[in-house]
Write a structure and sequence with these properties.
Layout: H1 3-27, H2 31-34, H3 37-67, H4 72-102, H5 109-180, H6 186-203, E1 209-210, H7 211-229, E2 234-240, E3 247-248, H8 254-263, E4 273-280, E5 284-291, H9 303-316, E6 321-327, E7 331-338
Parallel strand pairs: 2-4
Antiparallel strand pairs: 1-3, 4-5, 5-7, 6-7
Length: 342
């Protein structure tokens, strides 16, 4: 049993027995006037101590040894024997208390005491069993949830790790193309790539980063693409709203933009455009609109970028995001909305 579960269970059982004690004291308060305070306290102490001992034996010995091992007959036999032993002790004490301490009216008290103790003991025993199974069910559910969240986080980290090599592969291809052409833009691209790598290696290791840094990263990426494209494409990045209080998982917007370049404006020679709008209100809204070469490209796959994005969104923001992808005849638009970011 883990320490957290042990502590929580101990407190729950403590509260349960305190309530049982209070109920019993209230139910037998008449003994204070009839038998006196000492006998009243002794009666309560004896009954509660016996009930606690009965419950402890059942929960810690009988249930693990017999019930959990599906030895049901032996379990119920031992429970009956346990209750019988309790009845003998408690009923003899009650017979003495009610018969000799309170008064001489002893006729029929033993049988009445047996029936009373049997019903109440069985009830308390069932309550403790129900309480144990409730605690075990809750702890098991909590543990499964923690395991599930750990697995989801592991998968998110794995999916995120795929983004970095994917981007680096594209960036190096861009740089290679410029060096082949002996372009004067190559040094500027190396500087931009260095800034991007610094962000990737040192600033994006957290689960979330400031949205402002992610937008700056995206801006540098677009500058690199402008250098590589060289086709006069109309590339715009517009940010509306306050980004100061917003945080976002790193590289969450990039796959949409990469997909727009890969299947959109990189294949258009003239009048290519890519318009990115980021709006911060109650939700974060990202719109990426670009034109395409022809209708057939509407059915092309977005590669691992968009596939990873969809998985990450499902893992990070279940029921708290929408991702709409609209493939038209001449343009492609993606709208991403995420709640609980700002």
């Amino acid at each position: 049993m883990i320490p957290g579960k042990l502590n929580s269970s101990k407190w729950i059982y403590t509260v349960f027995w305190v309530l049982v004690t209070v109920i019993f004291l209230y139910d037998t308060r008449y003994l204070i006037t009839k038998a006196g305070l000492p006998f009243f306290l002794i009666c309560a102490a004896v009954r509660i101590a016996l009930l606690i001992g009965l419950a402890w034996i059942n929960l810690n010995i009988l249930i693990p040894r017999y019930l959990f091992r599906k030895r049901y007959i032996l379990y119920f036999v031992w429970v009956l024997l346990l209750i019988a032993g309790y009845l003998v002790i408690q009923s003899v004490y009650d017979y003495y208390l009610y018969g000799f301490i309170i008064g001489p009216n002893r006729g029929g008290l033993l049988s009445a005491s047996l029936l009373y103790n049997f019903t109440h003991t069985s009830l308390y025993l069932l309550l403790t069993v129900a309480l144990k199974f409730s605690i075990d069910w809750y702890e098991q559910k909590k543990l499964l949830q923690e395991i599930k969240m750990a697995q989801l986080q592991t998968e998110v980290n794995f999916l995120r790790s795929q983004v970095n090599p994917h981007f680096l592969f594209n960036a190096l291809n861009n740089l290679y193309a410029l060096t082949i052409k002996k372009s004067d833009q190559a040094p500027d691209m190396v500087l931009k790539l260095s800034e991007l790598m610094e962000y990737m290696l040192y600033e994006s290791n957290a689960d979330e980063v400031p949205l402002e840094k992610e937008i700056n990263y995206l801006h540098n990426y677009l500058e690199l693409e402008k250098i590589r494209q060289g086709n006069g494409a109309d590339i715009r990045l517009t940010v509306n709203g306050n980004t100061e209080d917003c945080r976002i998982p790193p590289f969450l917007i990039l796959p949409i933009v990469e997909n727009a370049f890969k299947h959109g404006i990189s294949k258009i020679v003239h009048h290519a455009y890519l318009h990115i709008t980021i709006e911060i209100t109650e939700v974060l809204t990202v719109k990426v609109l670009n034109n395409k070469l022809n209708v057939q490209q509407a059915e092309e796959s977005g590669g691992i970028g968009l596939a990873n994005l969809k998985k990450r969104l499902d893992l990070l923001y279940p029921a708290a995001h929408t991702l709409d992808i609209m493939n038209g005849a001449i343009q492609h638009e993606v709208i991403l909305k995420i709640d609980r970011l700002c």
